[in-house]
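Backbone-to-sequence.
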């Protein structure tokens, strides 16, 4: 991308050919004539960085600035980030917290020294089976099936199966309690700087280690 830079400002930005009183210059020609050749035409390379370099959840794009051409004959456009409203930032952080709750709750538990998935479909199956089980019934079940940990099929009794359901319930509850704690903490903050520095990734239940054994 190129720009026409005159009198301390960018007059136009273009990708294709350039026309002025002296003639028409295709983009390939502009690249070929180098920095000095383009400078004679007031044409420079152009990079727009005005929409990058800041967290869009917390800032909006403010004043745009076009730097003077550098030694490489390039003009770089930047912007000054402007803080979002505190209530908007709170809402953004809370949405991240609830998303993390879902991620943690559905990312597995350890039970009987084995890793189990806890995504919604599996949990629904566990609940339905556990309700109808006799204590002495045996149920074949699969451990977590991931890239890191191979699936293992084994049998557990009805009592053990209900214990798995209870372990998952405790895990879900812990994730929910952690969520409430983080949301309450965010609600208690009133300054932009305190909100953006708040670490909501701590104090969550520990998910299983799914790495393969040595």
């Amino acid at each position: 991308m190129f720009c026409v830079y005159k009198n301390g400002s960018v007059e136009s930005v273009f990708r294709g050919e350039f026309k002025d009183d002296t003639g028409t210059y295709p983009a390939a020609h502009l690249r070929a004539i180098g920095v000095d050749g383009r400078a004679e035409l007031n044409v420079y390379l152009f990079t727009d960085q005005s929409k990058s370099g800041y967290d869009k959840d917390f800032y909006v794009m403010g004043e745009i600035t076009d730097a003077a051409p550098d030694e490489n004959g390039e003009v770089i456009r930047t912007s000054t980030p402007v803080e979002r409203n505190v209530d908007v930032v709170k809402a953004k952080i809370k949405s991240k917290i609830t998303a993390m709750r879902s991620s943690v709750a559905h990312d597995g538990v350890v039970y009987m020294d084995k890793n189990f998935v806890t995504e919604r479909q599996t949990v629904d199956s566990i609940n339905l089976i556990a309700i109808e089980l006799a204590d002495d019934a045996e149920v074949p079940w699969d451990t977590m099936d991931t890239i890191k940990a191979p699936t293992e099929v084994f049998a557990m009794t009805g009592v053990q199966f209900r214990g798995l359901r209870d372990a998952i319930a405790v895990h879900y509850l812990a994730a929910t309690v952690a969520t409430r704690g983080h949301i309450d903490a965010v609600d208690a903050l009133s300054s932009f700087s305190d909100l953006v520095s708040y670490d909501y990734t701590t104090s969550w239940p520990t998910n299983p280690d799914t790495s393969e054994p040595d």
